[in-house]
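To the wet lab folks,

You asked to see what we're planning to order before we commit. Fair enough. Below is the target structure as tokens, and below that is the sequence we designed to fit it. If anything looks off to you, flag it before the synthesis order goes out.
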């Protein structure tokens, strides 16, 4: 968690373990008043430093370049752990029925 000088929470991220053994960088959020000030960068770098081994994430396609700056790369379906293959499939089906152009990236660091 990131805190302002007065101790108020201004952002957080979690490392979420899955049954297949993969660990996900998830739930990254920064308070609106603190966006654009490097809080997300600190949270992401801290999460990467705190985890030994591969770290995965799911994000909207337009956020891919942000995570690439931290060393994440987009995975092909056959490179994904089971959990992320399933999530990728479910989101694809959902978007197909909703008529959405947007897609999800599954990315890996390490």
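Sequence we intend to order:
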């Amino acid at each position: 968690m990131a805190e302002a000088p007065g101790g108020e929470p201004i952002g957080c991220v979690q490392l979420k373990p899955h049954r297949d053994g993969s660990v996900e960088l998830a739930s990254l959020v920064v308070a609106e008043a603190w966006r654009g000030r490097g809080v997300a960068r600190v949270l992401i770098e801290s999460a990467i430093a705190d985890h030994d081994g591969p770290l995965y994430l799911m994000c909207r396609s337009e956020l891919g370049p942000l995570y690439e700056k931290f060393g994440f790369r987009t995975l092909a379906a056959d490179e994904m752990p089971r959990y992320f293959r399933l999530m990728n499939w479910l989101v694809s089906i959902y978007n197909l029925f909703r008529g959405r152009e947007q897609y999800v990236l599954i990315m890996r660091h390490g």
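Structural context that might help your review: DSSP finds three helices and six strands in the chain. The CA atoms of residues 2 and 53 lie 23 Å apart.

Thanks,
Computational group
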